[in-house]
Amino acid sequence: MRQMCAGLVLALLALMVGMTMPVPAHACGADSDCMVGERSYRIVMPAGHDGASKVPVIAFAHGYKGSAAGVMRNRSLRGLAGDLGAALLAFNADGDSWILPNHPRQMESDGAAEFAYVDAVLADATMRFALDAERIMATGFSGGGMLVWNLACARSGSFAGFAPIAGTFWLKPPERCAAPITSIVHIHGDRDKTVPLEGRAIGPTKQGEVDAALALYQQFGDFGAPQDRTYGDLRCTERGNADGAILEFCLFPGGHSLRTEHLRHAWQRLSDAGQL
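Above: the chain's sequence. Below: its structure in token form.
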């Protein structure tokens, strides 16, 4: 009887200790938020990951009224990341959209809050998880593509390459971008009416012209003469520079949509260029 009581006491003590133990630093992921200050992100590692070996990353920015949780529910995106042996990291806007320069609700914004948030996410994620900080591709759709273009100009050194999809700068590109020069693969539907290639007025501002963003970066990165190539349904214009960076603009037949095979193309092109 005494042994039974002693065992019960020990079991209760163990339970109490377990309840008071600190939560592991990585106790967040696809189904729960990883907090950075008052904001959050979500992440899923490749299936069967050993917990130690470092993996590359697809860092994805959702579109208007999206969420990191919604990105994690996208089986196609998660399947792609798994196929590539990459982690899928989902940024999370503070509200329904990313507050960037010339945003219709905050025209005076310089984007600093979003850039600081991304800095904090990258620092936190690479501390909590086995991620290869040198092999992170920033990508996003629609409004998320707008964030990606801004990151390409403001935080080029934080990512191996950028793949904005159906999104560009609000109103106009910045006057200059920060070094180092990086690689960009921009993908867009040729009949996109939500974020048209030629831009679209929204309130006091407008969605910028895709050609203007490409022209800015072409000049900034000293990218050379264009070469036209076709990959499946993608019609691409490719440029390279002396440092091996690429600037690629791809059109597909269709409207405002995200297609996983296009994201795979961007990853492959950045890999071929030695960025990933």
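Helices lie at 2-20, 68-72, 75-83, 112-128, 143-154, 210-220, 260-272.
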